[in-house]
Design brief:
The chain contains six helices and ten strands. By secondary structure, the protein is α/β, with parallel strands linked by helices.
């Protein structure tokens, strides 16, 4: 799978998104990796046209809207369950960071909703997405939907995805951007979570500690 990362503000190439993440990481060095509290800095994604309402379904087939998460921070990742490498690694790092943050700040972690949204509705049924999410912890909510519903939410989050060549019946890869968004209780974008850092979730935990209060 060709991994892409897009800058949510301008949809620029991955190197600029990497720069944004590195800048956020540098700012985190002055903070304790697991201390909760609001940052005095402006959120990196403040004012970005990301997010909005959506209509998807959970593992039980129940309709889920963005409003169902109102009042909670949202850590949202877009991927697909048949992904052989990138998606499982990214989600693992996201949830390692979430659990590390939760161990130090259980009350604050209760304000965060980790969410996995499938960009492969053709294969990712509610049951399949539910099973995938369960591998990473009961806190992770897996969502899918119709092709139209997925396209709508992906567009609102500036997520790129494209179905690859089918090499056998129901066998294909999905080319897609790779980013984990931290959204505020009001649904507005705050920052990208550094899921590209292989440090057992420490960087993700530090970023959560920086913004969740």
């Amino acid at each position: 799978m060709n991994r892409r990362a897009m800058d949510p503000k301008s949809q620029l190439p991955a190197r600029l998104t990497r720069s944004l993440i590195l800048l956020a990481g540098a700012a985190m060095l002055s903070l304790s990796a697991c201390s909760g509290g609001a940052s005095s800095e402006a959120p990196p994604l403040e004012g970005a046209a990301i997010g909005g309402d959506f209509t998807l379904v959970d593992k039980t087939g129940k309709t889920v809207h963005a409003a169902d998460f109102a009042g909670r921070y949202r850590a949202i990742y877009f991927g697909y369950t048949f992904c052989p490498d990138v998606c499982p690694t990214d989600v693992q790092r996201l949830m390692l960071g979430f659990h590390r943050f939760g161990k130090a700040n259980p009350k604050l972690a209760g304000k965060v909703a980790p969410i996995f949204v499938s960009i492969d509705p053709e294969r990712d049924t509610p049951q399949v997405v539910g099973q995938f999410a369960a591998h990473f912890g009961p806190e992770l909510t897996g969502l899918t939907g119709s092709a139209q519903q997925v396209a709508q939410v992906a567009k609102s989050y500036a997520v790129y995805y494209k179905k690859g060549e089918t090499t056998a019946p129901n066998v294909y890869f999905m080319d897609h951007s790779s980013a984990a968004y931290l959204m505020g209780p009001d649904g507005k974008p705050i920052a990208l979570l550094p899921i590209d850092v292989d440090d057992q979730g420490k960087s993700v935990a530090a970023e959560l500690a920086k913004w969740v209060h």
